[in-house]
Specification:
Layout (H helix, E strand, L loop, with lengths): L8 E4 L5 H11 L3 E4 L1 H5 L3 H4 L2 H8 L2 E2 L2 E2 L4 E5 L11 E5 H15 L12 E6 H5 L8 H5 L7 E7 L4 E7 L2 E8 L2 E6 L17 E3 L15 H6 L4 E5 L4 E4 L4 E6 L3 E8 L3
Parallel strand pairs: 1-2
Antiparallel strand pairs: 2-14, 3-4, 5-6, 5-7, 7-8, 8-16, 9-12, 9-15, 10-14, 10-16, 11-13, 11-15
Length: about 270
């Protein structure tokens, strides 16, 4: 690749040497996938965080409050790129019921994005689930000395996209339902990614679509392609992707998708 890591290593979770190999990639600042971690650890989140499981959750009062009535913002466009950010505020119950109906209609398979539904993204997990440790705890398993990791919840139909960006914290993305495609570019190629000024100092957003670039509009990205610096991995339910801090990534739902991610700045 020139500067940066040599691709995305995939490890089968549960093998005797997996943890040591995972730590090696972490120390090198390289992305790595742990396949089947959720199934091996028997996460209840794999049942709760399905469209049908979420429908049950929002249809009852939980944690002494009506989760279904929670007002949440859904994204109606790719927020990370320059231009107007479009959002809608909806009740969580209404969003989940639409997601469930879409899942029943299409059987979880890839379908065109339902623009009316939007993308529920980066909602703090404790707003919906309370303490997520009963559902899953990948941070404790992988980094037992981590302090106060922050978890976020994501859900939407196929085609939902989080535009290319980087974060200043180490990150693990946990796929709980459906498929997500993650495209990554090393930090060394930042100057070719057309960064913009959206969001806070902890996130660097980009205008270029690193999956389907418009090379007339963003000609510098040709250098990233020529260097072979773009890497893509697809996650299935139960898979975990470690994304080092400052690595640029773009995420697209290939099917109806539910996931969580956890930031932690001290490991």
């Amino acid at each position: 690749l020139g500067e940066g890591w040599q691709g995305v290593k995939e490890l089968k979770y549960g093998k005797s040497d997996t943890f040591c190999e995972f730590l090696t990639h972490l120390e090198r600042g390289e992305p790595v996938v742990l396949r089947g971690m959720g199934q091996a650890e028997r996460w209840s989140a794999l049942k709760v965080c399905t469209p049908s499981g979420l429908k049950k959750l929002v249809s009852h009062d939980c944690h002494k409050r009506s989760i279904g009535n929670l007002r949440v913002d859904v994204a109606l466009n790719v927020e990370e790129r320059s231009g107007c950010t479009k959002k809608a505020r909806v009740r969580l119950r209404d969003f989940v019921h639409k997601l469930h109906a879409c899942d029943l209609e299409h059987g979880g398979k890839s379908v065109s994005k339902d623009n009316d539904m939007g993308y529920l993204k980066q909602i703090q997990c404790d707003r919906i689930f309370g303490d997520t440790k009963e559902l899953l705890d990948p941070v404790k398993t992988l980094w037992p000395d981590a302090i106060c990791p922050t978890g976020y919840f994501w859900a939407g139909p196929s085609g939902c996209t989080t535009g290319c960006h980087s974060d200043d914290e180490k990150n693990i993305l946990v796929q709980l339902y459906g498929k997500k495609r993650v495209t990554l570019v090393p930090e060394a190629y930042k100057s070719y990614l057309y960064t913009n000024s959206k969001y806070d100092s902890g996130t660097t957003c980009c205008d270029v679509d690193i999956e389907n670039p418009d090379l007339h509009k963003h000609p510098l990205f040709k250098k990233v392609i020529a260097a072979g610096a773009v890497r893509t991995v697809t996650l299935d339910a139960g898979d975990v992707l470690y994304i080092p801090k400052n690595v640029f990534h773009q995420v697209t739902s290939e099917t109806i998708s539910v996931s969580m991610n956890f930031f932690c700045s001290n490991w």
